């Protein structure tokens, strides 16, 4: 019997024993195409020799040094690289061990920015429904996934949620993309007015929504409007690119495609590609300056922040992506993946929507295409698809998101940046089969 508390107590997961390229193998000799990078993590695939070599070199020279005493070459080089490639205005990077830690640190940086500036009344965080920002208490409070939050609500800081920008679910019949973007962004303006602009700290959003909604991109100039509203009210804009960032959508940062820059940005998953746990907050120079010109001390910290092994892995991952021009492959293979999904699943009677950017694509399943009615959540269609896909030797990431109290099922695909056309064709063929097998199980 396992002595680990796994995600479920009902079963023990398969034992993974090896992984190379885009496949993972279990202890029974079965192999699985990793078409979701776990949860959009393994951007370089598995066992990349250059990353393994960098890890060996780092372990040989220095495996750990506490940041209360030292900085390290690996951490400094990664910080420099992240800032050099960052959106305009970003001046510094803060290295942590994952996505939730990055979101916690971003929220605290936002708060400290205002306390340093003598605006301690700014305390309200606004985020969006159908979003996920992590499972630690601050990040969970920011997220809009009711299923994850419900039992922990008494422990969560008060946050305020507005509608996501989710065209398939929320754009009205006959409403133009521009009008819908204005209406969705207008919710932020209204919420700020309701709370009093002088009391609002930050607005948090994923540029392309990942786990809770299945690769939902924004529409029109939604984020330009959001940026303008935040600026007008002195509210900080935190973009959570933990899942959609670091090249996943075809540009290094997803917000580049929106033509805006955040005040704070969180990255993780694809930063280290799964070779080490690592995340980062990218912060604007003005936030750094407020702290440097005030207390000079960011009142936060973790034992493993700036870990040199994690930094060395992330540096190697990012160097390989740049050297091998893999973002070009993300764009090309992303377009091919989308085209194949449309060809194979576009007319499927239970596929309501196919969406996404780059190698970050989502498929939403519906009981009725005309009404967009989701499947009964008790049927757990997403779990059935996951199980059937594993039976087909395919790892994909199905979830049941929350749609204003109703749950809908979707599948997220986020294959490694090294996929080929043949890999993509095989992924789509196996997924289509898994979806049909799962639907055939329904009563
Ligand atoms: N933010 C987003 C957008 C995420 O998708 C996730 C994880 O899925 C997190 C934050 C939390 O990251 P982690 O699981 O590394 O704590």
UniProtKB/TrEMBL annotation:
InterPro entries attached here? Aminotrans_3 (IPR005814), Aminotrans_3_PPA_site (IPR049704), PyrdxlP-dep_Trfase (IPR015424), PyrdxlP-dep_Trfase_major (IPR015421), PyrdxlP-dep_Trfase_small (IPR015422)
What's a Pfam family this protein contains? Aminotran_3
Recorded GO cellular component terms are: cytosol
Q: Which residues cross the membrane?
A: none
What the entry lists under CDD domains is as follows:
OAT_like (cd00610)
Instruction: Give the molecular function GO annotations.
Output: pyridoxal phosphate binding; transaminase activity
UniProt keywords, alphabetically: Aminotransferase, Pyridoxal phosphate, Transferase
Cofactor(s) named in the record: pyridoxal 5'-phosphate
Q: Which family does it belong to?
A: Belongs to the class-III pyridoxal-phosphate-dependent aminotransferase family.
Q: What is this protein called?
A: Adenosylmethionine-8-amino-7-oxononanoate aminotransferase
Query: What organism does the UniProt record list as the source?
Result: Limimaricola pyoseonensis
Lineage, broadest ranks = Bacteria, Pseudomonadati, Pseudomonadota, Alphaproteobacteria, Rhodobacterales
């Amino acid at each position: 019997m396992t002595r680990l508390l796994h995600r479920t107590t009902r079963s023990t997961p398969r034992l993974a024993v090896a992984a190379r390229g885009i496949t993972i193998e279990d202890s029974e000799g079965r192999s699985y195409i990793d078409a979701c990078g776990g949860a959009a993590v393994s951007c370089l695939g598995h066992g990349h020799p250059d990353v393994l070599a960098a890890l060996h070199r780092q372990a040989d020279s220095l495996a750990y040094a506490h940041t209360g005493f030292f900085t390290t070459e690996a951490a400094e080089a990664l910080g420099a690289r992240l800032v050099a490639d960052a959106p305009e205005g970003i001046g510094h990077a803060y290295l942590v061990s994952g996505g939730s830690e990055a979101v916690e640190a971003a929220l605290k940086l936002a708060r400290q920015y205002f306390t340093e500036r003598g605006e301690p009344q700014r305390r309200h965080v606004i985020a969006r429904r159908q979003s996920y920002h992590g499972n630690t208490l601050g990040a969970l409070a920011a997220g809009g996934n009711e299923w994850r939050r419900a039992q922990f609500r008494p422990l969560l800081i008060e946050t305020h949620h507005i509608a996501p920008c989710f065209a398939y679910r929320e754009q009205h019949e006959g409403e133009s993309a521009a009008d819908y973007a204005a209406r969705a962004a207008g919710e932020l303006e209204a919420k700020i007015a309701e709370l009093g602009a002088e009391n609002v700290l930050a607005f948090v959003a994923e540029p392309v929504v990942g786990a809770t909604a299945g690769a939902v991109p924004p529409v029109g100039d939604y984020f330009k409007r959001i940026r303008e509203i935040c600026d007008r009210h002195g509210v900080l804009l935190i973009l959570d690119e933990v899942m959609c960032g670091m090249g996943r959508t075809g540009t290094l940062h997803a917000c580049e495609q929106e033509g805006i820059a955040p005040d704070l940005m969180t990255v993780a998953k694809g930063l280290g590609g799964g070779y080490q746990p690592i995340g980062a907050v990218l912060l604007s120079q003005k936030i750094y300056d407020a702290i440097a010109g005030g207390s000079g001390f960011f009142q936060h910290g973790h034992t493993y922040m700036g870990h040199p092994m994690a930094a060395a892995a992330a540096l190697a991952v990012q160097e390989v992506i740049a050297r091998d021009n893999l973002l070009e492959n993300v764009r090309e293979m992303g377009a091919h993946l989308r085209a194949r999904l449309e060809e194979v699943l576009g007319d499927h009677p239970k596929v309501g929507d196919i969406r996404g950017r780059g190698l970050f694509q989502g498929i939403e399943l519906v009981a009725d295409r005309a009404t967009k009615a989701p499947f009964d959540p008790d049927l757990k269609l997403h779990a059935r698809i996951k199980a059937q896909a594993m039976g087909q030797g395919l790892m994909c990431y199905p979830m049941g998101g929350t749609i204003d109290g109703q749950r809908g099922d979707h599948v997220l695909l986020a294959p490694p940046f090294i996929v080929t056309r043949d890999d993509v064709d095989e992924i789509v063929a196996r997924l289509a089969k898994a979806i049909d097998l799962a639907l055939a199980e329904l009563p």
